[in-house]
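cache lookup: miss for this entity combination. No prior model stored, computing from scratch. Input as submitted by user K.M.:
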Amino acid sequence: MFVLIMGCGRLGAELAALLEGDGHEVTILDVDKYAFDHLGPDFKGHKILGDGTDQDTLRRAGAERADAFIAATRGDNRNALASQVARHVFNIKRVGSVIFDPIREEVYHGLGLRTINPTKIEARLLRESIERED
Amino acid sequence: MFIIVAGAGKVGYHLARALIADHEILVIELDPARCDFVGEELGAEVVMQGDACDVATMERAGMERADLVAAVTGDDDDNLTVCQMAKAKFSVPRTVARINNPQNETLFRNLGIDSTVSATNLILGHIEQELPWRGLIPLMTFRGRGLEIVEVRVPAEAMIVGRAVRNILLPQGALLCLVIDGEGTPRLPTPETTVHADDIVVAVTNIEGEEGLREALTSPRP
């Protein structure tokens, strides 16, 4: 698959490495050029400096031929907007979005986005880590 | 009406000030200094400090009884979230979003925002009206119906010059409403009406038909 990732923080960079490891082609976007420092030296894909909520930027990044899009910035609203642009303007079928606010995540999930809520997942994992018997 | 305004920048502040005489207004703003300013000018009960995208803040603001929400911050993503959350969680009947990036206007309408306002697109429309421009000038939008009224000036080299309206192939859902000739005489087009160079044609179209309508009315003779 050809995957577009918006947000090259630790999460985006980690995800890019995983996807490349699985043999996928990756292009990653960020508004901050220093964010690309999170990528390992093995990263083979394209780095695009620009705003992933902007349609022209996404087009430049190859959104028209993308098989999947993932919004992985720290901003829920940015992720939600970019995901809906990917879905409704570029008709990308697989659109994943990180939404930290559990309530917003619920709403956007209801609107048909494939949302991931790190807050709920982390809370559950942390609970398990302390409730687990040694 | 009870109107909630998200964002107390210049647009939000002046909007609240214009509406406050006739409506119950609450402005939600993140920046405490800006809140103080609006409170001083319009009254402390008119402004609430908080994140308008956050459901807890929305509840505190009384979103469930809002008749209208106007999201007018300088960030389109925030404006979209405010409107989508207001609809999904509080069933607010009308949402209005300010559009900063004009490319977002169609998307926001398709996502169910009732009204969108883009200063850039409005100014662009005014500039285009002054320029020889081979395109559609949007005049008005029917909210919720997906229809738009547009204006086209027929270029001299257009294929349709000299043709009768019945011989112009229009896209599905497009309708010619008015033809204004060079003297400024408006006519309701009939199938027999002939289109001349420099006529102004006013048409109604759905969003999908826009490009086809532009081609039908402005494509040059081969």
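stored under new cache key. Chain B touches chain A at residues 53-55, 75-78, 80-81, 84-85, 88-89, 101, 103-104, 107, 110-111 (CB under 8 Å).
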